[in-house]
Amino acid sequence: MITEEKITALLSKFDALEQDMSTASGSEEIIRLSKEHGELKPIADHARELAEVRRQIGDLKELAAGDDPEMAEMAAMELEELEARAPGLEHELQLLLLPKDKADDSSVILEVRAGTGGDEAALFAGDLFRMYQRYALLQGWRVEILSQSEADVGGYKEIQANIAGDGVFARMKFESGVHRVQRVPSTETQGRIHTSAATVAVLPEPEEVDIEVNEADLRVDVFRASGPGGQSVNTTDSAVRITHLPTGIVVSQQDEKSQHKNRAKAMKVLRARLYEAERARADAERAEARRGMVGSGDRSERIRTYNYPQSRVTDHRINLTLYKLDEIVAGDGVDEVVDALITQDRADRLLDMQNNDA
User: Among 180, 242, 262, 281, which is most exposed with the fewest C-beta within 10 angstroms?
Assistant: First the structure.
């Protein structure tokens, strides 16, 4: 239960923030306070509404217990409505008070790689990438392909893209893991269903202030870019391979003809991988980490199956099954899956918070 002391503290914090905003002068301070105000205002509004409902409930209880029968009856009716409303308000406030992942507002680096299944896995990787590309466009996000390795039959052996916009990671972070497809490949003459897989990684893109990279920790190699079959696609050493010596992380980029552009793209991916590695390390150190939580980000975990014969998509983490595969793969139905994952994640974290408070 959210105590009156907690509500008072929240409202006092919000009032103090508004006072700071009225006296702020520097542009950086104004931007910082405005962002904090935007995050805290919904919490303060809900807290104020809950406090008012509780105050009214207290007044109505006194009237309902009074000597005036008519007034007591009216008070009892209003009291019943407010007592039914109060738990919902408190639940909404509890959700708003859940700790926010500081990376939720970030853009992301999306990596899709063909897994087991040969040519069919590469085709499926292509289907997944186009699904996310379409979904991103529907959300108003920008998609920039960073690197791609196309398969001979179509699709991708692997592809990396930058998806930029507000709150991208908050909605995409639950997509990391192994995606499995069950369908009859176009090359299958007997009509047998094959099972293939692709891995998806969604890495929050850090600001430069979030992750510092020491140039002395980097080994940068340049080489001539090559296309399918190993043939050279240009005559200059424009491709770039960056090795982060302390961690051993290696990033290569060769899609651009400019060495400078390839290096910039490689550094963007490297920062994202270092940031994710640091987040993973911090998560691992937390006591009682929930291994089965939604969005654990474990890329070895099979998270979803796309069954074409049954037009079925199943997310195994939350036992969600939807018979609208075409809509989801087209990107239009992804929101329904994402919303269900976010709802379950909030419920799990709320339960954890309540257990810790008990």
Answer: 281
Dig out the tokens for 33 from the structure. 């306070």
Tell me if 294 sits within 8 A of 345, measured CB to CB.
Answer: yes
Contact 245, 260 (CB under 8 A): no
Assess contact for 173 and 296: CB atoms under 8 A. no
DSSP 232: B
264 and 307 belong to one structural domain: no
Q: Positive or negative CA dihedral for 327, 333, 338, 343?
A: negative
| Tokens describing residue 68 | 């005036």
Residue 102 domain-assigned?
no
Structure tokens at 124: 């499926």
Residues 45 and 90 in one domain: yes
Number of domains in the chain: 3
**Which residue(s) pair with 113 in the sheet?**
158, 199
Q: Cβ–Cβ contacts within 10 Å for residue 206, how many?
A: 21
pLDDT tens column, 218-252: 999 888 776 654 454 555 678 899 999 988 999 99
- Cβ neighbourhood burial of 76 (10 Å; 0-12, 13-18, 19+): middle
pLDDT in tens, 83-120: 999 999 998 888 888 877 788 888 999 999 999 888 99
Tokens describing residue 75: 């008070």
Q: What span, in angstroms and rounded, lies between the C-alpha atoms of 211 and 202? A: 17
Count of CA atoms in the C-beta half-sphere (13 A) of 2 = 27
Question: 65 lies in which domain range?
Answer: 4-96
